[in-house]
TrEMBL record:
InterPro entries: 2am3keto_CoA_ligase (IPR011282), Aminotrans_II_pyridoxalP_BS (IPR001917), Aminotransferase_I/II_large (IPR004839), AON_synthase_class-II (IPR050087), PyrdxlP-dep_Trfase (IPR015424), PyrdxlP-dep_Trfase_major (IPR015421), PyrdxlP-dep_Trfase_small (IPR015422). Belongs to the class-II pyridoxal-phosphate-dependent aminotransferase family. Its EC number is 2.3.1.29. It catalyses: glycine + acetyl-CoA = (2S)-2-amino-3-oxobutanoate + CoA. Residues 69-410 form the Aminotransferase class I/classII large domain. This is 2-amino-3-ketobutyrate coenzyme A ligase, mitochondrial. CDD domains: KBL_like. One of its GO terms (biological process) is L-threonine catabolic process. Its cofactor is pyridoxal 5'-phosphate. GO terms for cellular component: cytosol; mitochondrial matrix.
Length: 421
């Protein structure tokens, strides 16, 4: 009897189709989830995903036929995600070292390429040592808990990335949040935090929603005055900010004042995946012993290691790619400003076109896509209310013509929707 029922249930679902769990709890869960999803749709904050049918790059083919799209919304700042040498390095690493390690690092998951990449990252940033993670999200989740105790304090910019916020939540240190890039407020919080054993100031090097760069010189001066350490998240800086692309600390001349850097291999450095911490050797040694996302998660796959390693080689050979991105950024920012738009931030390839109204940002982004320009509108709760924008990200592999087409499309669409006179 039960066999017949089971066979019918299976047939009902279609061979290999989804099985639906039955029972009151499952039904209640489904109702609750559907209502929550409806709330998200109702609030206008639903995130849908466009499906790309080609490699990541300045020109995309979208699934379902949309070809020839110029892409201005990837973090592919240096265009290395589809660089032939990066791809070749991944294939070679895959063939030589296999698909993956099926192990965490400390059991049976460390290959020579992992050690080589860690050494290369430390050299790139002029730090003593480095440790790899599956992502920078993991690096941020792992560092604060391993480093700070209830005797210590962490002071965090209120607009820091979600992964820093989550990492800080996981630690037992005393938490202080200072106003975005507000040095007076940071100083007040540092004074309050003098009672603790150790103080760590944590900030994004470059903030991804506004394209603004943390005032690291001032932060480091305050850190020196109040005997604090400085941590920066360089996801939107590594590879392209500063004369040699080393990041915000190089750009602002404070390489020897920043103690800890976390960054990603999933943006400018090849774009595959992975993250890291680089800094003093005893810190890195401690993270290998105590950092939970490192200890309890699989090693980075060899192909991913191969990509990042080659990306770093290319950057250490020459600063030409980083420089070409800076020139393109300058072209976009100055042409858009001349056209009458307000672009937030300064000298950063994240160029938020400030529009204010959420609906305007959304319809303009849709209209841009219909003209072959792929950009994304951001509104509350991702950015503050009344500060909706379209975020444009420039890459070294955009041609001048790509950039000019984007500015022309913005000008037409802006006039059509009343964002420009
Ligand atoms: N930190 C910042 C500032 C980021 O923008 C991101 C990614 O969006 C991360 C951390 C997480 O990086 P990953 O994609 O390597 O997890």
């Amino acid at each position: 009897m039960w066999r017949t029922v089971a066979v019918r249930a299976l047939r009902g679902a279609g061979a290999g189709g989804p099985r639906t769990a039955s029972g009151a709890a499952a039904a209640q869960l489904r109702r609750r989830l559907e209502s929550e999803l409806e709330d998200i749709r109702g609030a206008g904050t639903w995130k849908s995903e466009r499906v790309i049918a080609s490699r990541q790059g300045p020109h995309l083919q979208l699934a379902g036929g949309g070809g020839g799209i110029i892409n201005f919304c990837a973090n592919n700042y240096l265009g290395l995600s589809s660089h032939p040498e990066v791809i070749r390095a991944a294939v070679e690493a895959l063939e030589k070292f296999g698909a993956g390690l099926s192990s965490v690092r400390f059991i049976c998951g460390t290959q020579s390429i992992h050690k080589d990449l860690e050494e290369k990252i430390a050299r790139f940033h002029q730090r003593e040592d480095a440790i790899l993670y599956a992502s920078c999200f993991d690096a941020n989740a792992g560092i604060f808990e391993a480093l700070l105790t209830p005797e210590d304090a962490v002071l965090s910019d209120e607009l820091n990335h979600a992964s820093i916020i989550d990492g800080i939540r996981l630690c037992k240190a005393n938490k202080y949040r200072y106003k975005h890039m507000d040095m007076q407020d940071l100083e007040a919080k540092l004074q309050e935090a003098q009672k603790h054993r150790l103080r760590l100031v944590a900030t994004d090097g470059a903030f991804s929603m506004d394209g603004d760069i943390a005032p690291l010189r001032e932060i480091c001066q305050l850190a020196q005055k109040y005997d604090a350490l400085v941590f920066i998240d360089e996801c939107h800086a590594t590879g392209f900010l500063g004369p040699n692309g080393r990041g915000t600390d190089e750009l602002l001349g404070v390489v020897d004042k920043v103690t800890i850097i976390n960054s990603t291999l999933g943006k400018a450095l090849g774009g595959a995946a992975g993250g890291y911490t680089t800094g003093p050797k005893p810190l890195i040694d401690l993270l290998r012993q105590r950092s939970r996302p490192y200890l309890f998660s699989n090693s980075l796959p060899p192909a991913v290691v191969g990509c990042a390693s080659k990306a770093l080689d290319l950057l250490m050979e020459s600063n030409a790619i980083a420089q070409s991105m800076a020139a393109k950024t300058q072209r976009f920012r100055s042409k858009m400003t001349a056209a009458g738009f307000t672009i937030s931030g300064k000298d950063h390839p994240i160029c938020p076109v400030m529009l204010g109204d959420a609906r305007l940002a959304s319809v303009m982004a849709e209209d841009m896509l219909s003209r072959g320009i792929y950009v994304i509108g951001f509104s509350y709760p991702v950015v503050p209310k009344g500060k909706a924008r379209i975020r444009v990200q420039i890459s070294a592999v955009h041609s001048d013509e790509d950039i000019d087409r984007c500015v022309e499309a913005f000008t037409e669409v802006g006039r059509k929707h009343g964002a420009l006179p």
